[in-house]
Specification:
Strand content: 15-25%
Structural class: alpha/beta
Helix content: 25-40%
Number of helices: 6
Order of helices and strands: EHEHEHEHEHEEHE
Shape: globular
Bound molecules: 5-O-phosphono-beta-D-ribofuranosylamine
Strand order of the largest sheet: 3-2-1-4-5-6-7-8
Largest sheet: 8 strands, mixed
Radius of gyration: 16 Å
Length: 195
């Protein structure tokens, strides 16, 4: 059984979708949900689902990224993590950390990468007048939002959309894409899934 840990920073809706998908004949199970914010609502949701949780407050490390990541790594190793999923995790991880999980670390990003790496993806798509937007699941490498593509889902940009309405439409697809990509990944499939 593949042991999956999930890193979150906020509500954790993607974490919930991933955790709910790992049942029955699914070859993976969630073993830990961890956040850089002890108050992240997703921690409560994970606990309600019976998943072990932990938190390492990045503010306790005052910019000492290496120390923060060492504290983050400990629970992951204790949980014997096989695959690490970033799901709404808002801290940038150093190459040293990502190298520890090279080839078994995934992230979901709310744009059609390589368009709009980084933040404020929906507003940037609107400002550019794009007629479509979406989300991408990719392997995490040292370069931000740039690892091998594992899946993408597209949505239309509709007249009258603002960043909020577009984000909500994309989020629905995120909750379909990420679980589907995780299962394929655990089963050894690396060809991108295009929904
Ligand atoms: C989502 O837009 C996701 O793409 C981004 O963080 C946002 C919130 O995700 N990574 P969640 O509800 O905390 O999973």
């Amino acid at each position: 059984m593949t042991r999956v840990a999930i890193l979150i920073s906020g509500g954790g809706s993607n974490m919930v979708a991933l955790a709910q998908s790992m049942t029955g004949d699914h070859p993976a199970r969630p073993v830990l949900v961890m956040s850089n914010d002890p108050a992240a609502r997703g921690l409560t949701r994970a606990a309600e689902m019976g998943i072990p949780t932990d938190a390492v407050d990045h503010r306790d490390f005052k910019g000492d990224r290496a120390a923060f990541e060492a504290a983050l790594l400990d629970p992951l190793l204790r949980a014997e993590t096989d695959v690490l999923c970033l799901a709404g995790f808002m801290r940038i991880l150093t190459p040293e950390f990502t190298r520890r999980f090279e080839g078994r670390m995934l992230n979901i990003h709310p744009s059609l990468l390589p368009k709009y790496p980084g933040l404020h993806t929906h507003q940037r798509a609107l400002d550019a007048g794009d007629t479509e937007a979406g989300c991408t699941v990719h392997e995490v490498t040292a370069e931000l939002d740039a690892g091998p593509l594992l899946g993408q889902a597209r949505v239309p940009v509709l007249p009258g959309d603002d960043a909020g309405t577009l984000a909500a439409r994309v989020l629905v697809q995120e909750h379909l894409l990420y679980p589907a990509v995780l299962r394929r990944f655990v089963e050894g499939e690396r060809a991108p899934l295009i929904l």
